Amino acid sequence: MLTLHPVPAFSDNYIWCLHDDQSAYVVDPGEAEPVLRYLKERSLRLKGILVTHHHFDHVSGIEALLAASPEIPVWGPGNETIPGRTLSLKGGEQFELDWGMQLQVLAVPGHTLGHIAYFAPESPLGPLLFCGDTLFSSGCGRLFEGTPAQMHESLQRLGQLPPETLVCCTHEYTTANLKFAQAVEPDNRDIAERLDEVRGLREQNLPSLPSSLALEWKVNPFLRANEGAVLASLTSKLGTRPTSAADSFAKLRQWKDNF
Ligand SMILES: [Zn+2]
Fold first, then answer.
1. CATH value at residue 34
2. 63-70 mean pLDDT
């Protein structure tokens, strides 16, 4: 039996831990301390570290985790500087974790240029996506290095994965993202329902994640950039209709940056 658990870190990060009550893998450990505590409480042995991109809040815990488990692999994007990386990856590659679990590597530039995501098509928990700071629930990462067109393409690629895919993103930004989504689509009932649900979860200090791609297609303006309601909203805000789905995405991202 596999468990998928978001270990909270910093003020709003999650370090995803996948384990079978013996062996564990973690994704984007920006801090070591909360991971070490979680592993110790459950007597788990760390078997490997997966990294999506180079930002400090995703990599700063790697060295301390390696000090505690020196021999484990650290997978990360080959064209970014990742401390302790032992295996350099690029989009299109595959590898296997314990449990015979296949992971596919997807290149998803935009937030950073080398950003990768990990997709497990056939985990015992259903399809799993670890997408770092690319796709958030009802939002997406800021464009620090890539272009809007790159991020739009990356999100659309992630959006084509199976609808039941569990979306394991790295930040608890869902409430703020839904408020923006509601500004873009005030009449979208799915957004209103999700906001109610997430407010309830957050009041109990529970994570709003993982999400699913099926849900994201209903509530995420950045995936919905080419939907009629989103285009109409942008047109009335800007006075001109976006010229393409990528243009619509770019205008949404700009709007969100100033929201
Ligand atoms: Zn980042």
1. 3.60.15.10
2. 97
Decide if 19 is catalytic: no
Please give the distance, rounded to the nearest whole angstrom, from the Cα atom of residue 187 to the centre of ligand 1: 31
| Total domains present in the chain | 1
Contact 89, 75 (CB under 8 A): yes
Could you confirm whether 111 is annotated as catalytic?
yes
Q: How far apart are CA 78 and CA 45, in angstroms?
A: 26
Label residue 53 by pLDDT band (50, 70, 90). Answer: very high
Q: What is the mean pLDDT of the chain?
A: 98
Domain of 63, in residue numbers: 3-257
State yes or no: is 58 an active-site residue. yes
CA angle, 187 then 191 then 192, to 5°: 75
What is the DSSP code (8-state) at residue 100? G
Q: How confident is the model at residue 96 (pLDDT cuts 50, 70, 90)?
A: very high
How far apart are the CA of 240 and the centre of ligand 1, in A?
Answer: 32
pTM flag (> 0.85): yes
d(Cα 23, Cα 140) in Å, to the nearest integer? 31
- Tell me if residue 28 falls in helix, strand or coil: coil
Q: Give the separation between CA 91 and CA 78, rounded to whole angstroms.
A: 10
Structure tokens belonging to residue 131: 């997408």
